[in-house]
Design a protein that fits this description.
The chain has about 325 residues and is of the alpha/beta class. The protein folds into 2 domains: about 100 residues, 2-Layer Sandwich (Enolase-like, domain 1); about 200 residues, Enolase-like C-terminal domain (TIM Barrel). Helix content is about 30%, strand content about 25%. The protein is built from 12 helices and 14 strands. An 8-stranded parallel β-sheet has the order 5-6-7-8-9-10-11-12. Strand 11, helix 12 and strand 12 form a beta-alpha-beta unit. It starts with a strand and ends in a 9-residue tail after the last strand.
Length: about 325
């Protein structure tokens, strides 16, 4: 018989993490642990209010499925029992980890991925005044890829971008507006991105207003984040976006994330693998997507005051594959 335990953990963020929708000072995660004999599998998720999730709702979804989980449900069956989202992510990743521990076979091998190599991750700069973001960029200027949170309501995003570029002139820049732009400032902001050599623009418009991107000349590639969840959301995005950001808390785990990656590439989308702000236990399963991704944004632990131990090994901007003691 399997035994399921679920706990809520709070991890302080090194400084306030600010995006277009607000700020937070801690990462609140839900960790599911499944035991079967001597084998133990773990999965971590981050409930996200943007998608109507709370810690309580995620715990409730897991409790509703407890009997099936402890009764030995397989990952494939799980996809039809729990809806996509953070709760299923925690259980799906715990089941991958459990199977890896039971069979002594790495997840990468079970999934047919092959060897996972170290990968360069973006490092995120919070939304702030141009001078504040410039100072943060200067402090991180040795990192090869910087992800800049924009979406300010004051019309100063071009100033923020120019200030960051001046402070970190050699870095590859990714802009993430978190749905913070509108039809009124879209052209101006995209033009500023092109002028500063931005490599990718994430979710410039609200997910329910992104049809405005259709047929629009895009001087910088545009990536869907809040507009994409699972494979069923891909068809509508053709002609709107050049890339998609895959996050396991959106897809509901690694199982659907791997299928989404394959389906998206078949439709011509470039891939980004991203994360919510969580610990290395959230990042470890997402590393399985790194070989497919053009852009990798798995810096969650770097934004925390401390990470769990053992955690992923970061050498500067390079994230190393997880050791079995952590996951997989």
């Amino acid at each position: 018989m399997r035994q399921l335990s679920v706990i809520v953990e709070r991890w302080p963020i090194a400084s306030a993490f600010t995006i277009a929708r607000g700020s937070k000072t801690e990462a609140v995660v839900v960790v599911a642990t499944i035991r079967e004999g001597a084998a133990v599998g773990r999965g971590e998720c981050v409930p996200y209010g943007r998608y109507g999730e709370t810690v309580e709702s995620v715990l409730g979804q897991i409790e509703e499925a407890r009997g099936l989980i402890e009764g030995g449900i397989e990952r494939e069956t799980l996809q039809g029992v729990m809806p996509p989202g953070a709760a299923r992510n925690a259980i799906d990743c715990a089941l991958w980890d459990l199977d890896a521990k039971r069979l002594s076979i790495p997840v990468a091998e079970m999934a047919g991925i092959g060897r996972i190599r170290p990968a360069v991750t973006a490092y995120t700069l919070s939304l702030g005044a141009p001078e504040t973001m410039a100072a943060a960029a200067a402090a991180a200027a040795d990192r090869p890829v910087l992800k800049i949170k924009l979406g300010g309501r004051d019309g100063r995003d071009p100033d923020r971008l120019a200030a960051v570029r001046k402070a970190a002139y050699a870095a590859t820049l990714i802009v993430d507006a978190n749905e913070g732009w509108s039809g009124d400032d879209l052209a101006t902001n995209l033009r500023a991105c092109a002028e500063q050599g931005v490599a990718l623009v994430e979710q410039p418009l609200p997910a329910d207003a992104d049809e405005a991107l259709r047929g629009l000349s895009r001087p910088a590639p545009v990536c869907a984040d809040e507009s994409v969840h699972g494979r069923d959301t891909l068809e509508r995005l053709e002609g709107l976006y050049d890339a998609i950001n895959i996050k396991l808390d959106k897809t509901g785990g690694l199982t659907e994330a791997l299928r989404l990656a394959e389906a998206a590439q078949a439709r011509g989308f470039a891939l980004m693998v991203g994360c919510m702000v969580g610990t290395s236990l959230s990042m470890a399963p997402a590393m399985m997507l790194a070989p497919r991704a053009r852009f990798i944004d798995l810096d969650g632990p770097l934004l925390l005051s401390r990470d769990r131990a053992p955690g992923l090994r970061y050498e500067g901007a390079v994230a190393h594959p997880p050791e079995p003691e952590l996951w997989g």
